[in-house]
Here is the input.
Amino acid sequence: MKKEVKSVKLYGYKRPDGLFGIRNYLLIIPTVICANEVARRIANNIPGAKVIPHQHGCAQLEPDAAQTFRTLAGFGLNPNVGGAVVVGLGCETVQAEELAEKIKSSGKPVHYLVIQESGGFVSSVEKGTELGKEIYKQIKDLQREEMKFEDLMIGLECGGSDTTSGISANPALGAASDLFFKEGATTVLSETTELIGAEHILERRAINEEVALKLDEIVKRMEKRVLDMGVSITGANPSPGNIRGGLTTIEEKSLGCIYKAGTSIVKEVVEYAERPKQKGLVIMDTPGNDIESISGMIAGGCQLCIFTTGLGTPTGSPIAPVIKVCGNDENYKKVSDFIDINAGLIINGSKTVEEIAGMIYNMAVEVINGKQTKCEILGVEEFSINRIGPTL
Here is the structure.
């Protein structure tokens, strides 16, 4: 049967740097955990503003501090963000002015404030609210313009996996990924821990030896981190829920996971929260933790994520829609309030993999053009930055 795919036009918000967003948010960014509450209250005072509280920004060794900076800057630079207010404490490692200048390089309106220099907590909230409302007035009436698939970067994620993930939801997303590639979009496959044991398959699809070696490097680096702690990866990955769902080894999980990437050539391997330079299929070095992984891909520029699950998880993001695809009927019925597409129809024979791929593609187009996912409607908005080393 043919894929159920419509001929479409896409519309988004064109930013000063030429990128297109599919949402138009004012983002309040705390540089450090100590600024979270001020940032949260500023966001609460401005209609539709988003905030990304986190536990980092200080007492970090340089690699972690750089990764935190890169992730926060990436969220501000993400084209779904129209403007930002950066809120710093003053004595932290990640400095507010430097972060604001990085985001401002995109041409977006950006302000920053420092709590220790703004007269205290209440005064900082008042000042931040003023600055945020000023930017909100500049971006709130922006209109969508026609965009192309080449302007899109789509994150591929799976979580709460079971045996049905690898035989229905993930293959369907892989087929949809191939449709996106054909149209010129970039897709990002994440979760290095869930490539272990299957990396050789993706290495054979690398565009050149350099990309294949980089993929091998990130997998070995992840394995070494586990070995250096003197423990087995089992119990963390596969998780207890994965094991109850029938996934008994990391290799089983990985072989199901990589289906999400379809059949295209791997063009590039990038670090966590790094923006890809190549178009097509890109692999990002992220952990298997869903929220850290999604946050890394969005910081890298993804405007949309598509998330497959067997068991169900309501993971979302403050600034990017997350489409949920469930692998089986039973769990779809249990958690249908946050699942957008039921790929269990493949298993019961109602739909083919290609037909569900068409449904994913068509829903992605609708979401790009403004339709809200179920998690957006529910207000599910999580953010977390991957941590490399210890807190000092």
